[in-house]
Amino acid sequence: MTGSEVAAAAGVSPATVSYVLNDTPGQSIPESTRTRVREAAARLGYQPNAAARSLRVGRSDVVVGLVPDTGYSATFSDLMLKLSRSLSELGLSLVLHPAPLDPVRLRELLRTIDPVGVVALTGLDDDTVTALQAAGVRVVVGTAGAGAPRAWEIRFGAGEFGAAQAQHLRSRGHERIGLVRWARDFPSATDQGRAAALLEVMAVAGQTHIPVLDLPADPGAAEQALGVWLRDEPAVTAVATMDDDVAALVVSSADRLGVAVPDRLAVVGAYDFPVCTLVRPALSTVRADLGDLIGRFAAIIHEAVADAGSPLPDRIAVDTARVVARGST
Amino acid sequence: MTGSEVAAAAGVSPATVSYVLNDTPGQSIPESTRTRVREAAARLGYQPNAAARSLRVGRSDVVVGLVPDTGYSATFSDLMLKLSRSLSELGLSLVLHPAPLDPVRLRELLRTIDPVGVVALTGLDDDTVTALQAAGVRVVVGTAGAGAPRAWEIRFGAGEFGAAQAQHLRSRGHERIGLVRWARDFPSATDQGRAAALLEVMAVAGQTHIPVLDLPADPGAAEQALGVWLRDEPAVTAVATMDDDVAALVVSSADRLGVAVPDRLAVVGAYDFPVCTLVRPALSTVRADLGDLIGRFAAIIHEAVADAGSPLPDRIAVDTARVVARGST
DNA sequence: TTGTACGCGTTATCAG
DNA sequence: CTGATAACGCGTACAA
């Protein structure tokens, strides 16, 4: 079903079809013609060819959502579903991809999808951001990142989660805290941003660096790694984790090791995943109303796509980050 | 960077560039020309434009992976990562999308991505499969489904997980079992296939239908729903769940209700998610070496894409489905 | 007010 | 054995 066929059915030229269906401004087409075209399009089930459109316009209508490759809880899933709906109303569509991606797979993604925007639930390192811009991505929404954000890049929640975690642990009397992240081949930018945010708060209490534990996903290996780490870092009485999945593994590993939570080791996670209330003790965590942000993301992306020259906010604060205290702290 | 520029740099025509870089058979181009072209392409960092290619060829090189919209664990995440790599080697790329999708979003996905193949970690209902075929998708790999598979559709693991769960529960002496699935607006085809598989095994023991509990994701609501359901179904002494996330919520809800697991209620999950060993009692589950299947999926998709007429297997058995017995049964 | 014609980058057909 | 050239479907400048 092509635009020409619709034009033929409506008795107009292909150009008119394009004008009508795209609501092209500056064209004075009588309402009667418009309805005839729209009706024909609807009747024939006309769907514009995305490839032809992309080729002509020079960009696709696709936004890529980068999700953590460590698995992806219902919390994040809901977020992406919301984003998908919001973007959909604005004529954009969302597909997901696991992150972080190595340079080769990133290039492949950019080449095959040529997204107009990227929303990352993970941090993006500078090289990735640079590659995205070079590939023509109009707007990037992500969390942490080392340098200053570019004009077309928006950051959110860079430090709020870490700050909330550290403040909570301090308020519970802890003076030396650590960070637990997933062990992985390539370091994640989110991990680094979180560590920096924790340190900023703990520096006030005299802590000079944040010890980091790389936790393997395998329960046996995790237990061992935690045991060794706790011996090596005897001053650490509490840990913040990158997310609640990691926190859950810490708590259960501690249980097996005979390490009392929260007495010997307090644990605070992040994002309030469903797993929080499944483990014993239940996980304290930091949650934020990210769902609220999603609508703004969509609007910002739409704006950036529609009007390339419009200025973007370089940062969106997550002002709703709040501690949910449960049994693990 | 376009093919024409490469052609100019190499002193050949654009057509020759296409022939060389695509290894088009039936063309006798001297090795010297080939190397010259390849060199120029590499030097200039040529990346073919996917939109133009899609427009010309009539399909994209993208495969869509449908993932459960309830969130998915590291187990599925790993699977998709493996699939992504396998497809990548075959010149195809993978993007993810939450499923099930309503008809509107499905159409949008098909229009914007125009995938050449679909791999679903969830079941696909018949309408969806029909829509996929109509949109020109060459091959669909999915789990359950009501009717018989189409020639271009491959099913895997339709009943194996359910059969293994039911057999395990029977071997533990249970004669009346139920199925627990996520409460959701639209029924999932996976859920229906699982129920049928369970019934097939339990029919031998005289069970005539499988009571189903729709579990809300919210812990409080889940606890209440489980309590009511157990009162309504006093004969049920064990449940199989759709996956380990659901199973974990059942176990923790039972704990809060004072229902002893496994004595009053045995619980067996599926897929061996990491959450299995995080809850008490640890979850019995059914696992299969799906990673092994992934490579075959990729090969089958590649085959179907490369040679439209080649016959596909209509079914791939998951012969490695095995029970992992832990504390919950 | 509407239609014609061109170009986006690629691949396939068909002369040379 | 090689390379012009047309065509894919759309959007838009310009002509009618």
Automatic annotation (TrEMBL), chains A, B:
Do the record's keywords include Transcription regulation? yes
**Record's keyword terms, sorted:** DNA-binding, Transcription, Transcription regulation
Q: Which InterPro entries does UniProt cross-reference here?
A: HTH_LacI, LacI/GalR-like_sensor, Lambda_DNA-bd_dom_sf, Peripla_BP_I
Can you name one GO molecular function term for this protein? Answer: transcription cis-regulatory region binding
Q: Cite the HTH lacI-type domain residue spans from the record.
A: 1-57
Record-linked Pfam families: LacI (PF00356), Peripla_BP_3 (PF13377)
PANTHER family documented for this protein: LACI-RELATED TRANSCRIPTIONAL REPRESSOR, LACTOSE OPERON REPRESSOR
Record-given protein name: DNA-binding transcriptional regulator, LacI/PurR family
Species this protein is from: Klenkia soli
